[in-house]
Amino acid sequence: MKSSLNKQSILLLGMNGLFVLAGALSGTFLNVYLWKTKPDYAMIGWFTVSQQVALGLTFWVAGKWVKEHNKMNALRAGTALSGIFYLLVLWSGPRAVHYIWPLGILLGIALGLFWLAFNVVYFEVTDSRNRDRFNGWVGLLGSFAGIVGPWLSGWIIASMENDTGYRVIFSISLAIYIVGVILSFFLKKRKVKEEYNWAEPWNRLTDGGSPWRPLSLALAAQGIREGVFSFLITLLVFVATKQEWKLGQFSLITSAVSLVSFWAAGRWLRPRYRSAGMLIGALLLVAVLLPLLWKVQYGTLLFMGIGTSLFIPLYLIPITTLGFDLMGATDRNVAERVELVVLRELCLMTGRLIGTFVFIGVLSVSRMPHVITWLMIGLGCAPVIGWFFVRGMMKSAGWKPASE
Question: Which PANTHER family does the entry mention (predicted)?
Fold first, then answer.
């Protein structure tokens, strides 16, 4: 039986919504902004690599701060640094392409601090009965932000000359991050009882009987797809259309579909259907890529985007819920929840880096459109492999939370 969300979880959802909205306004067009100055897929790839390395290391290093001190300050610092990142982009303008590594590292640190603290607070304000619902709402708010943000940004950019529109949306995002910092002061600080164990992520991976071993492989497989698709899809839409408002339209349509699909999955996807849902979702995520073999144009990209929005909740909600339910499976896991959040992110980061390095390596050999398409299909198969690693865990009761 599902439990309703409490005030703290609703407040956390609100802060998450603001953070995601700010990212949707500017993040959707950030890579396009860099691309227009220097049209180079490899440059965008290295920008992603710098973010992921910084993000993963921030999770591991900041874990001590979050566990032993005030996690709310980490949440605020991540939000504030995100705002500073866009200030620097505004200041540097077209010269930003010359500072890919420092800018990427700053953004990675900001995202690392925010999502580490968010995930820990998320675990604390939810339980195994309402996590599917919370995850559904996270997807719902993310989809709503994806509808409003990119469409508004595309309209602003298209209606203004030169790069003025980009400067406006970057400034709006900065203002939203400031509001997010203010909102964070209403979240309760929870007492700290344990010390941070730096080696715990490694200990879990080297424990032969740990359920985190198969889950870590599944998370890495998830990251392989995410690492490349997170930036490549928006670039392909812009390259195909040469119009920012078309990219905004693409995001509006796909996010509207995603809003409905996340709501439906969060409401009706029961635990006993998680394994089947993951497999069906993973297979359909590959199937919607196949029309790109015919031609990479706005129509086929839109078909792929709508299909992805429809089916990705079937995959994401179960694997996300599984990881956080594992954190509550034993008293030891609850005590080491910060270390387990770090482990989860390090696995995702590893996968994202693998996928991005494969992308950069393939493009160093050939940049032909059909090569990029086949590469997308290959990377898109990774979630199927992820399901394979955790299929048994989904069907058994061994991972079911005993206490939280």
Answer: INTEGRAL MEMBRANE TRANSPORT PROTEIN-RELATED (PTHR23526), MAJOR FACILITATOR SUPERFAMILY (MFS) PROFILE DOMAIN-CONTAINING PROTEIN (PTHR23526:SF2)
